[in-house]
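Feature request, filed as a ticket because there's no other form

It would be nice if the structure record came with a short human-readable summary line next to the tokens. Right now we just get the raw output. Example of a typical job, pasted below so the devs can see what we mean:
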Amino acid sequence: MLFPMNINSATFLTSATDLKSCKSSVYPEFAFIGRSNVGKSSLINMLTNNRKLAKVSETPGKTQLINFFSINGNWTLVDLPGYGYARVSKDKRAGFNEAVADFLDQRETLLQTFVLIDSRLPPQEIDKEFIKWMIGSNIPFSVVFTKADKQSTSKTNTNVAYFCKTVLEGITPAPMSFISSSETKAGRKEILAHIDVLMSAR
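Raw output as currently delivered:
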């Protein structure tokens, strides 16, 4: 039986344009990233029980900065720009923002990155390229399949199983995966319990 942490406080800390401008931290950090319009802001608000914490917009790519939120005063949630609309870096690292790549690759207090995938869609090339880069860079990550409420459970399970088989199979250690919905709060307790476990093992 899962016992997810209680979220007693969730407050905005600061924003940064790149790794150099990120303030140092003594608290573990958990980053959330995904293709633009994947439902990242809605997921963050669902996890923290605060519908106004992350700005939800109909405009893809709204998040342009690295945003930090203090959770319970003992860990930090990091909202990263979506990689679908971000500026491509010179070496075209998976087509996403160079500042984001630097943060994921070099931030010492980053414990885990949650890669968000739209559960309604077949594997998208940009998602596959991003995960390939994460694996090649030895960056620990988990996968969160979003918008599960937008279709039948069987369709979600079929899409998730296909994604795991074609994109995640063979990865060692195998990344954790979660099915979520910001509307029904599906996946909330599992994701928070996973964060709790990672913090305890730190």
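Something like this underneath would help us a lot:
The CA atoms of residues 120 and 155 lie 8 Å apart.
The chain has one domain: 10-200.
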